[in-house]
Amino acid sequence: MEEIAPSPIVVFGAPRSGTTYLNAILNAHPDVFITHETRIFVWAERTRTELLERPQVFRSHRDTFQEYLDTQLPTLIQGFYRHLRPQARYWGDKNPHYASPSNIASMDLVHEWFPTARFIHIMRDGRDVVASLLRKSTPDGTEWASFEQAHEVWTGHISTAADWIAGHPGVGYELRYEDLIADDVEVAAAVFEFLGLDMPESVRTFCLEQREERTPMSGPTRDLADVARSEWADVLDGEEQKLSLELFGDHLTRFGYA
Fold first, then answer.
1. N-term to C-term CA, the chain
2. Helix (H) or strand (E) holding 173
3. pLDDT per position in the chain (258 positions), as tens?
């Protein structure tokens, strides 16, 4: 059994931005195992901070125990991944909401605990994200996000993630969903190069098969024969489109989607 890598790979970005597809590409590598939203680093950060700050949870020796946690939790998390997939060497978690302003502190903790960790931020045109969010509902039929919330999710996640990556040079990589689906193989090769891994034939085959017939990764999905086509104008009427641009037009410009 090969030794497991000392640090994780973290995939994040706004919901409906292609994190699940990128995760599938990474996992097509036989030595890579990226979990689907275990969200373990949010748990770790809140265990280390919020819970320890509550006297009803932990009262005495708090500082000493926190120092102890910092030496033990990274090993525990790494061991958990070895337990989940013993044959995998490279490991990590995909969770769009690591990019949430309320969760970005967990990325600070990962960077502190695992200095050689690698972070991949995938971004997508906010119009497509909003349209997809508005189409999505919970199992009981409740809408996943309101009109305003859908815009807040995209603007909050993409700006928080981009600012974090910019503030931590050398550890992060950013890509666009639009580029990924335009040339899956080339963009995947660039991602693996950033990770310092060779791209095996299994990844290339997976990408080429997806070019031939797209696999629904996370519903709701559009017509997968034309994944580049935007549904924003179909989902939103004229007045909603105007309001939409007022809500996130500056972010579209900032990230090159104007």
1. 49
2. strand 172-176
3. 568 999 999 999 999 999 999 999 999 999 999 999 999 999 999 988 877 777 777 778 878 888 888 899 999 999 999 999 999 999 999 999 999 999 999 999 999 999 999 999 999 999 999 999 998 755 555 677 899 999 999 999 999 999 999 999 999 999 999 999 999 999 999 999 999 999 999 999 999 999 988 887 666 555 545 555 678 888 989 999 999 999 999 999 999 998
CA distance 154 to 182: 22
Q: Is 169 helix (H, G, I), strand (E, B) or coil?
A: coil
The C-alpha R_g of the chain, in whole angstroms, comes to: 19
Query: Which pTM value belongs to this model?
Result: 0.90
User: Number of helices and strands (H, E) in the chain?
Assistant: 11, 5
Asked if 91 contacts 5 with a C-beta cutoff of 8 angstroms, the reply is yes
